[in-house]
């Protein structure tokens, strides 16, 4: 014995099928007083008409509807139990052994023959209902399928007064449940937690369980039915099929829900009282919720389906709107006095026909068998690799996981490679490559730890975000009010080299000057080799490099390096005479701008041109991609129109189905494949266009930056070269860190006049 949660824990895959509508049949209970003038059947046995006479008591103006017509999948009138099963249930049970879930439901008013249709009568063997015949068909088909190992399990659930009961809990090996049963949902579907599931190896065992459950059902008597079912019952057959011939880990499962609903009652006709009245209230309430769920399922615009309003709809959630073959048998009374209930039942059947389901094969995977198959496949692949390596004279290749000795050897090779004693590391297989990169990471991490440990032994490291430590250092006199440590040149990062306590103010520190000199030496070397600091950005897919424009600090460093290299001597040095004389009249800005781009601003101009060429190339590619996207879109529209024409032609000629699959011709199939490929191309081209647009935006930003920098540098150079006097430039350079060319011209002229006046006064005072 198992419970339903065991089945929900298995791995699950459902191959989605085509959507199909619920099949709805009507079975008419034969009576002696059948109203032929009120109930009429169509010639095809798929329609039923209800005709009523007008009520003359409503007066002359009477808009009462008197006729209704219902189109169904079949009308079973005076039909035997054999014919009912062949028409309603045989295909559903047959497809269940192929992996499709199935549900057969009997609905109708009380006393209309639902239980007789589902379970039948025990007096005569021919009067067996759908449920025992389904069990018989399942076991007969199992005997015919000798290539599969098929197991069958059953469960029997009763919903009485909105409470769940296990009708097979009275068996001696089951026992009562300590916790009440609940309905649980998971990605695999809906199952009843606590409901016992019983293994049946033969037909007799299944019938014994069926009879055991039938004896535990709640029944009562009223004026409409002497043996009225007072609860909804769901008998479920679980089928699991494994292949005997294939060692495949995949197998199929399915379940058949056979639902016998309690009948709806009009209390005025049944005369129910007391406990029976309470039961009728719960029955009518749950059936009303069932009809609400069916109405919501039939409405394509509804997003929410009220499955959880009652236990019945919640338990049948998979059957009503899930991946199963659904069949409804509506039982009606063939008497004039019951026409109102008959109309209500037929309306329910019509609404049920609007509901669509999506039957799918339920495929699961046996984890244990999957592991064995993967191990077998792995061994075969290793053998194939060994044969390939032997033919290629690669005898030292090993595909097993590396041990500690091999990892240590790779670590040693990596260290020797970094030290320069090993020229290259021999590559054997992919596993070794992965381990080499891993050992590079290990060596890098160890070196970082060693450097940090060495710094901590030699210096005192204080994190600038640790305010408590900074406060303590300030109190000890080791830092100024701004939080800068003694000996710290820039006030950023970690403080290195805290001054010792034995230091006296009168002593000079030579190391501080040496430290500054050490900082300036690599800067000069860098400026001599590369006068402009640039960055490169690698943009896929063309791998074209975009050059970032110089930053303010980089340009300033560049000019400082140029000044230090071209003007290492004071202004009164003889080398000052080598500078070209300043023209009396400054050239026009366009002419000066061309000279600037060829000489002083050549590097920025080169970066600007390169970025602009890259931008133009990206724009050209984006234009070509846009044209391709438009062409693909037009072709998609043309293909859709052709596909719609083929579909309309197929519907006009008549649709053909084979085992639930729609049959289409080759031309329509090729159009579907073409449309799928075009959509794939469209998505790929559109993604390329989005990437190109992002690159264009970034390139445009760099071009604008370069243009702004080029114009700014030109203005500064133009002012310094032709407007600002040389003596004033020397004074400004010695007095502040601002370049003379950045000062506005009007202020420069005022300052120059002021300096002349001061100089004149000084000369007068000397005289």
TrEMBL record:
Its main location: cytoplasm. Residues 525-596 are annotated as: Disordered. The keyword Cytoplasm applies. Residues 551-564 have a biased composition (Basic and acidic residues). CDD domains: KISc_KIF9_like. It is found in: Cytoplasm, Cytoskeleton. InterPro entries: KIF6/9_C, Kinesin-like_fam, Kinesin_motor_CS, Kinesin_motor_dom, Kinesin_motor_dom_sf, P-loop_NTPase. Belongs to the TRAFAC class myosin-kinesin ATPase superfamily. Kinesin family. ATP binds at residues 108-115. It comes from the Eukaryota. Pfam families: KIF9, Kinesin. Keywords: ATP-binding, Coiled coil, Cytoplasm, Cytoskeleton, Microtubule, Motor protein, Nucleotide-binding, Phosphoprotein. Residues 364-391, 615-642 form a coiled coil. The keyword Nucleotide-binding applies. SUPFAM superfamilies: P-loop containing nucleoside triphosphate hydrolases. Residues 21-355 form the Kinesin motor domain. Gene3D superfamilies: Kinesin motor domain. This is Kinesin-like protein.
């Amino acid at each position: 014995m198992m419970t339903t949660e065991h089945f929900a824990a298995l791995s699950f895959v459902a191959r989605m099928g085509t959507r199909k509508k619920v099949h709805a049949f009507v079975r008419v209970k034969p009576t002696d007083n059948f109203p032929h003038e009120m109930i009429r059947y169509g010639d095809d046995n798929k329609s039923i008409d209800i005709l009523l006479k007008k009520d003359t008591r409503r007066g002359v103006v009477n808009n009462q509807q008197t006729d209704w017509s219902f189109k169904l999948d079949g009308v079973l009138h005076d039909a035997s139990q054999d014919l009912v099963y062949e028409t309603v249930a045989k295909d559903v049970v047959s497809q269940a052994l192929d992996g499709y879930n199935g549900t057969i439901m009997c609905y109708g008013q009380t006393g209309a023959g639902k239980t007789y249709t589902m379970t039948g009568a025990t007096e005569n063997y021919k009067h067996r209902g759908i449920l025992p015949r389904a069990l018989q068909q399942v076991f007969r088909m199992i005997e015919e399928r000798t290539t599969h190992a098929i197991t069958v399990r059953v469960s029997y659930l009763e919903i009485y007064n909105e409470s769940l009961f296990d009708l097979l809990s009275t068996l001696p090996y089951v026992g009562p449940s300590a916790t009440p049963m609940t309905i649980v949902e998971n990605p695999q579907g809906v199952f009843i937690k606590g409901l016992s599931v019983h293994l049946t190896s033969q037909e007799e065992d299944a019938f014994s369980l069926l009879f055991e459950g039938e004896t535990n059902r709640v029944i009562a008597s009223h004026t409409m039915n002497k043996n009225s079912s007072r609860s909804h019952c769901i008998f479920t057959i679980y089928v699991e099929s494994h292949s005997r011939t294939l060692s495949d880990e995949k197998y199929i499962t399915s379940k058949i829900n056979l639902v016998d609903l309690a009948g709806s009652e009009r209390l005025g006709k049944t005369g129910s009282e007391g406990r029976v009245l309470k039961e009728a209230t719960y029955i009518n309430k749950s059936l009303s919720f069932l009809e609400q769920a069916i109405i919501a399922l039939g409405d394509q615009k509804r997003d929410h389906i009220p499955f959880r309003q009652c236990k019945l709809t919640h338990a049948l959630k998979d059957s009503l709107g899930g991946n199963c073959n659904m069949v409804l048998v509506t039982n009606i009374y063939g008497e004039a006095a019951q026409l109102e209930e008959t109309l209500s039942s037929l309306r329910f059947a019509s609404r049920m026909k609007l509901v669509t389901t999506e039957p799918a094969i339920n495929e699961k995977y046996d984890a244990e068998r999957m592991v064995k198959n993967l191990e077998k496949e792995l061994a075969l692949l290793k053998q194939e690799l060994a044969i390939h390596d032997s033919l290629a004279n690669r005898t030292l290749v090993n595909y097993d996981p590396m041990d500690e000795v091999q990892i240590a050897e790779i670590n040693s090779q990596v260290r020797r490679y970094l030290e320069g004693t090993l020229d290259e590391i021999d590559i054997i297989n992919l596993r070794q490559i992965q381990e080499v990169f891993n050992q590079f990471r290990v060596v890098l991490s160890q070196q970082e730890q060693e450097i940090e440990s060495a710094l901590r032994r030699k210096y005192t490291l204080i994190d600038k975000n640790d305010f408590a430590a900074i406060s303590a250092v300030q109190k000890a006199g080791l830092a100024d009010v701004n939080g800068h440590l003694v000996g710290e040149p820039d006030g950023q990062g970690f403080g290195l080299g805290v001054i010792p306590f034995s230091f006296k103010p009168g002593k000079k520190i030579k190391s501080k000057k040496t430290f500054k000199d050490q900082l300036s030496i690599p800067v000069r070397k860098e400026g001599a080799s590369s006068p402009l600091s640039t960055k490169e950005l690698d943009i896929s897919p063309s791998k074209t490099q975009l050059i970032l424009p110089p930053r303010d600090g980089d340009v300033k460093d560049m000019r400082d390096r140029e000044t230090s290299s071209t003007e290492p001597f004071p202004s009164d040095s003889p080398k000052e005479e080598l500078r070209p004389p300043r023209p009396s009249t400054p050239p026009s800005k366009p002419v000066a701008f061309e000279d600037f781009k060829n000489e002083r601003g050549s590097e920025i101009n080169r970066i600007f041109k390169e970025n602009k060429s890259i931008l133009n190339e990206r724009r050209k590619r984006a234009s070509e991609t846009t044209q391709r996207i438009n062409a693909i879109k037009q072709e998609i529209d043309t293909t859709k129109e052709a596909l719609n024409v083929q579909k309309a032609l197929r519907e006009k000629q008549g649709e053909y189905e084979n085992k639930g699959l729609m049959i289409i011709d080759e031309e329509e199939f090729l159009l579907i494949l073409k449309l799928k490929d075009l959509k794939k191309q469209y998505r790929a081209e559109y993604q390329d266009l989005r990437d190109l647009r992002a690159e264009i935006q970034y390139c445009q930003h760099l071009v604008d930056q370069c243009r702004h920098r080029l114009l700014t540098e030109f203005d500064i150079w133009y002012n310094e070269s032709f407007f600002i006097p040389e003596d004033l430039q020397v004074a400004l350079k010695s007095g502040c860190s601002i370049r003379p060319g950045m000062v506005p011209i009007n202020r420069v002229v005022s300052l120059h006049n002021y300096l002349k006046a001061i100089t004149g006064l000084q000369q007068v005072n000397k005289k």
